[in-house]
Write a structure and sequence with these properties.
A: 5 helices; globular; B: 186 residues; alpha+beta; Alpha-D-Glucose-1,6-Bisphosphate, Chain A, domain 4; 7-stranded antiparallel sheet; 3 helices; 41% strand
């Protein structure tokens, strides 16, 4: 597993990554395999499961990494990048060309 | 001037496997320039099931020594990457842009992974494009911008070629591990 940008966050990151990776491996396959009508329910159940399993680990890691991002002087660059390109929804190269 | 880079090829693994592999891509010996990977935001859309992940990647020697001397900063750089895994369309997209040195240049990369049209069940099509562009810096600095741009384009190409090999290794190891787990369960 990759290191965090701050060594002090690495153990928290590894704990969170392990939880997310295990959850994710069980996520895609059933959602993709579901009939379209059931897919939304499946996705919602899985999203709740992620929150229950990994939510607390995420909170701990996020707190640490947010501090580390600020200490590295990245906060303002990140804020600017988010403002310039919010990227809140998937956009596909194919569909962009049509715009 | 803008430098464009693009490549596309297939991975011999299903889209599900390749998409799982994205979270395991680093560290790998062929992409040793990536030294840290952090998730800074993540959400799962309860309606579409899209998993959105925002990460910050730390890269070493992302800028040449002469640039650091001239412009300041450090050889290490950070990149923001936003990815979407869409289970409805079976598409995974990643968009990344440099945070460091962004006042001088932008390196904007887009990657798509989707089932290969010719073999949706077992192969994955990978498409990557990048635009590398120095910001206008005035006449005296024009030469600096152009050299920085050319250097970055060269380095991007090297990393992209090595990245393919590195990710193939990661995918193979994950696949073997998966088969072992399945065999143990039998």
């Amino acid at each position: 597993m990759a290191e965090s940008l701050s060594p002090s966050c690495t153990p928290l990151k590894h704990a969170y990554d392990a939880c997310f990776n295990a959850w994710f491996e069980g996520y895609l396959e059933p959602v993709v395999a579901s009939a379209p009508a059931l897919r939304e329910r499946r996705a919602r159940e899985k999203a709740d499961e992620y929150e229950a399993r990994c939510g607390a680990l995420w909170k701990n890691y996020r707190e640490c990494v947010q501090k580390a991002v600020a200490e590295k002087g990245l906060s303002s660059m990140l804020e600017q990048a988010r403002k310039d390109k919010p990227l809140v929804e998937p956009s596909y190269p194919d569909s962009e060309k049509k715009d | 001037m803008v430098h464009f880079f693009s490549q596309s090829f297939n991975y011999d693994h299903p889209w599900l496997h390749v998409t799982n592999g994205i979270w395991h891509k680093y560290p790998n010996s062929r992409s040793s320039h990536v030294v840290s990977v952090d998730v800074i935001d993540r959400s799962i859309d309860p309606h579409s099931g899209v998993v959105r992940t925002e990460r910050v990647l730390g890269c070493k020697q992302a800028a040449p020594g002469w640039v650091v001397k001239l412009l300041g900063g450090s050889e290490d750089a950070f990149v923001r990457e936003v990815s979407f895994v869409d289970p409805q369309t079976s598409r995974t997209t990643l968009i990344s842009e440099n945070l460091s040195l962004s006042q001088y240049m932008t390196v904007l990369e887009q990657i798509t992974y989707e089932p290969s049209p010719a073999d949706r069940a077992s192969r994955t099509q990978f498409r990557q494009t990048a635009e590398i562009q120095a910001r206008p810096m005035g006449l005296i600095w024009k030469a600096v911008g152009e050299r920085l741009e050319a250097w970055s384009a060269q380095r991007f190409g090297d990393n992209a070629r090595n990245g393919r090999e590195g990710f193939e290794n990661v995918l193979r190891v994950l696949w073997e591990r998966k088969l072992m787990v399945q065999a143990e369960e039998l």
